Amino acid sequence: MKNYLLLIFVFLGSPSRAQFRYSPATPQVGQTVSFTYSPQGTPLAADSLIEGRHVRYGAPSTMHLSRPTSVTLVRQGNDFVGEVRAPKADVAGLAFLFRNPQQPQRVDLNKGKLYVVPVCDENGQSLPHATGGQASVFMRTGFLYEAGSRPDPNWVVALYEQELKQHPDLRPLYWSDYYAALIKQKKPGYGPTVKAGIESYLSSRQPPTPAEFMTAAQLYESMGDFPKAKQLRERQKTADPGGSLVQKDRAMAVRNEPDWTKKKAAYQAYAREFPTSSQLPALSILMADSYYKNNDINGLVAFVEKLPPTQIDVLMLSTIAFKMADEQRALPDAERIIRRAIAVQQLQSKPGNLTPTAWATEQQTRQRQLMNTLARTLEQQGKFADAYTAYQSVINLDEAENSDPRTNERYFLCALRTNHAADARPMAEAAISTGRATTRLKAALREWYARQPGQTPAKADAYIADLEADLMADKRDELREKLIDEPAPAFALTDLLGRTISSTAFKGKVIVLDFWATWCGPCVASFPAMQQAQARFQSDPNVRFLFVNTREGGPLSRVHNFMERNPYPFVVPLDTQQRVANAYKVKGIPTKVVIGPNGRVRYRSVGYNGSPEATVEELALIVEMLK
């Protein structure tokens, strides 16, 4: 029998003894195996540096233990030698490839069959899974893909068939992988053969397990037979009424329930029946969001305070609490929610896909985000001292360039209200110098500075200008590259008050044209910023802003109604035929066009970036440069 097994092993592609040799000849679990690799006649024949790389193999259920491991080889003449220890359990053999470690694409895979060291029992007999395990290397690991190759489906099928011939009792372990290999092999007529094999196997089981139904369904799906797969999944649900498929269906029913009262009841029933379901964390997050969206804030607070930490998304709670704070809605409840998130964040354990260092960094980032939300909820309640303390854990002077302008603003305003402006001043200055300050922060720092002993409003203006000097110089340089020089077509339009607005009347002035329409969301969104920009130059007779309505596509009453509802102090010429827009090469709206005192178009910008401060600042710089 021993000789028969050796012949089988050689038949299944064992490398030549001259190519790959190992000792002892019949290694057992836990033993050290010495081996010699001769690269002559292989892709590595000319390489002076070679490493071995191997994975363990065994029963299909143990293949998750297989991790590619490198073995250092020592050159001896034309050969390379190394050694490896066979694991003490869950192993039927080792599969090797050889490569140049400096050029991993240079590899010897033994013609795709790998170099194999079978592990034997105390009688020298190959263990079960000696050949089926090799097939599992190809089917259940990415070992060959890592080397830039793909398994030979014919070889994989041969390995499985040999294993099942030698050990028919192992069929329950290999049947699905074997049929999956036949599907990948795609020999003519494989479909009926595989389907017949699946049905035969299921019929032999009394009864099939839910896992076998699931696996069979997956095999049918891979062949495109979805009706049969669905039928098998229904049988799986019947066989396992509390199993994963039933849980998934019930979870989907909770997700899709439109009635809020019924949705809560369905979730509570699910949580009682499946307290350990893998679907429950995602469902709990969904429910927390649903409580907020249904304005059931009392219910939300009670819900999150009872949830275990594993079912809480702290960043989602932070988002909810921050929105509530911004809206000044149920502020004490918003504070309770974010404090619960902070407590949970400290309890949550490291995910398996993160290193300790990465997790520590992630936790620090989360902590700052949560504390920022806490500070906002406290600030909105008038608890400025507590808010200032919370903001201090968020603000980092060394990261001013990447800081959030609105957080910087809130921090300094809290500092003002609690007599800590001098302490917060360095961060405010850094925020202004790096362009991370809002208009309100600049104004607040200017006013505070002007009130200090020996200072005046004029000195405060110079102080802020000095902080911004380098930044403004850089931005002017950038804007100069954006300047254009094109003719400015003459125009005459009637505005909403019936006045004639003619470009000739503005000769020698800087003219800012804002092309817009009432239906254009970005146009309307930019209006508060444009109002600020216009206000900057309201006392300057050499600057005019015109908000040219174009591409309206509807009755003029719509424009009148819009301006009555939104009383912006704008002059609104009506470009009903789009002639002016076309003349000024307007491709989309909103488009801002700035005409210089010389009557030439010097600047054109399309769209709105969503930042009022950036919009005001850029337009103001352009106007000042052209003046």
From TrEMBL:
Keyword Cytoplasm: no
Keyword presence, Transferase: no
InterPro entries associated with the record: Redoxin, Thioredoxin-like_sf, Thioredoxin_CS, Thioredoxin_domain, Thioredoxin_ResA/DsbE_sf, TPR-like_helical_dom_sf
Protein keywords: Cytochrome c-type biogenesis, Redox-active center
Record localization: Cell envelope
Protein name, as recorded: Alkyl hydroperoxide reductase
Source species, domain of life: Bacteria
Coiled-coil residue spans: none
A molecular function (GO) term: oxidoreductase activity
A cellular-component GO term for this protein: cell envelope
Sequence ranges assigned to domain Thioredoxin in this UniProt record: 482-627
Biological processes per GO annotation: cytochrome complex assembly; response to stress
